[in-house]
Amino acid sequence: MKQVVGETCSAGLSPSLNQGIGMAYLPVAITKPGIPIEIEIRGRRFAAETVKKPFYRKPQATS
User: Fold this and answer.
1) Which of 11, 38, 7 is nearest to 25 (CA)?
2) pLDDT number for residue 1
3) Model confidence pLDDT, tens digit, residues 7-51
4) Beta-sheet pairing, 36-41 with 44-49
5) What are the strands, taking DSSP E only, across the chain?
6) pLDDT grade, residue 53 (50/70/90)?
7) Angstrom distance (rounded) from CA 4 to CA 56
8) DSSP H helix total and E strand total for the chain
9) Cα separation of 5 and 23, whole Å?
10) How many Å apart are CA 29 and CA 3, to the nearest integer?
11) What does the alpha-carbon distance between residue 16 and residue 38 come to, in Å, rounded to a whole number?
12) From CA 25, how far away is CA 62, in angstroms rounded?
């Protein structure tokens, strides 16, 4: 059985990244970028990974 370690506080679809993103309250031990986690959405489980904010940075224009 999987252990619940946190709780989502916000989630949705990112139009810039064209994928789902979310923020959650997690223990400090698993907040480093790149940690694989599993999330549950409406009773279904999905693979996810921790990342550093911001999720998206606008590409810089080149001259």
Assistant:
1) 7
2) 62
3) 888 889 988 888 888 888 889 988 899 999 898 888 898 899 998
4) antiparallel
5) 7-14, 19-25, 36-41, 44-49
6) confident
7) 27
8) 0, 4
9) 13
10) 14
11) 23
12) 37
